Amino acid sequence: MKTKTLFMTVILLIAMPSIALQAQDEKEWISPEAAAKVVDFQLQGEYLGKKDDGTGTELTVGLQLIALGGGNFRAVAYVGGLPGAGWSRGDESETLDCKLNDQGQLTFTLDEDKGEVSATFKAGKLTITTDDESIEMKKVARKSPTMGKAAPKGAVVLFDGTKEAAKNNFQRGQIVMEKLLRHDVETNAKFGDHQLHLEFRLPFMPYARGQGRGNSGMYVQGRYECQILDSFGLDGANNECGGIYKIAKPNVNMCLPPLVWQTYDVDFTAARYDDAGKKIKNARVTILHNGVKIHDDLELPNGTPGKHPEGPGPDILYLQGHGNPVVFRNIWVVNK
User: Fold this and answer.
1) pTM
2) For 4, which DSSP code?
3) Residue where a domain stops, chosen among 75, 105, 140
4) Is residue 147 in some structural domain?
């Protein structure tokens, strides 16, 4: 079954409840409270519904609606569910562009030989109605199962929301928005083999594109970058969220919408060197993004550009500064 038949339509109209479109003079938002006043942000997100495939079998359908600024959106439909929750890389998906008009209606263009169907968005549900059926898609807010995970006994707590932790544990450590850690910091401590937990939040930057959209990075040992980027709804490349820059793309793109807290959980084994300083074994890493394993005992053949060169001995954790207002919280390490 083709994903396009999920809608069977040329134009999909999402009738918004009575709400004035906010003038979007701003280009980025760093707080959910401020972004919530923007219609684009209200619509953006993840949806789930059910669809009969025509044989009596009910399929789960996922939808990610990505805001691109000025009432422009991209929608990605997934057969089987959402990425990491029923849908995996290689399963069927379809990408569509759409736009919010002056009447608060969102229009999708599909096949020219299809009919027209209306839809309503109310109370967090998107209801698509055709001549013979109605498909209801509920807006969902996924949360990482490791969100708020407490540091175990013996862990090195790097950031707990206090000014003292930011000042004592990081170079350039700065608190923003009362208890969050600003990007562009590096630890005073250095680490060898270790496990790491951190939580990050991307800004809402609908007008930005590509590497200019919520860009940061988690540099394990200051040598190996796992990208942090607003890659919500993208394919999941090695330079997108969860990718090991220039080395490996994530097994599935688990990036959630901007301004939703996300987690990285890392199990890292450092490269080994002989007494002469020659590398004899590559580093390896397993990473969970929002609780889903996106790299499984991945071999890292070399370091990644941007901070420290690969070498022997322990090294820092660096949270990259790239000019975008990415923030962090709940960061701890367990040395192995």
Assistant:
1) 0.90
2) G
3) 140
4) no
pLDDT for the residue 95:
87
pLDDT of residue 153: 96
Q: What is the pLDDT of residue 16?
A: 52
In angstroms, the CA 92 to CA 235 distance is 12
Residue 12 lies inside a defined structural domain of this protein: yes
Over 50: is that where the pLDDT of 1 sits?
A: no
Question: What digits encode the pLDDT tens for the residues 244-279?
Answer: 999 999 999 999 999 999 999 999 999 999 999 999
Q: From the centroid of its chain, how far is CA 181?
A: 18
CA dihedral angle for residue 76, residue 77, residue 82, residue 87, rounded to 10 degrees: -110
In the chain, how many domains are there?
Answer: 2
Distance of CA 11 to the CA centre of its chain: 29
Burial of 123-144, coded b for 16+ CB within 10 Å and e otherwise, reads eeebbbebeeeebebebeebeb
Which CATH number goes with the domain that contains 118?
Answer: 2.40.128
Containing domain of residue 127, as a range?
3-140
pLDDT digits (tens, 9 = 90+) for 82-140: 999 999 888 889 888 887 766 666 665 554 454 454 556 666 777 766 556 677 889 99
Q: Which two tokens stand for residue 171?
A: 């170079």
Instruction: Find, among 14, 2, 122, 91, the residue nearest to 51 by Cα.
Output: 2
Q: What is the CATH number of the domain that holds 281?
A: 2.60.120.560
CA distances from 222 to 38, 157, 270, 318 (A): 37, 18, 12, 5
Tokens of 144: 């990482």
CA dihedral angle for residue 314, residue 237, residue 292, residue 61, rounded to 10 degrees: 170
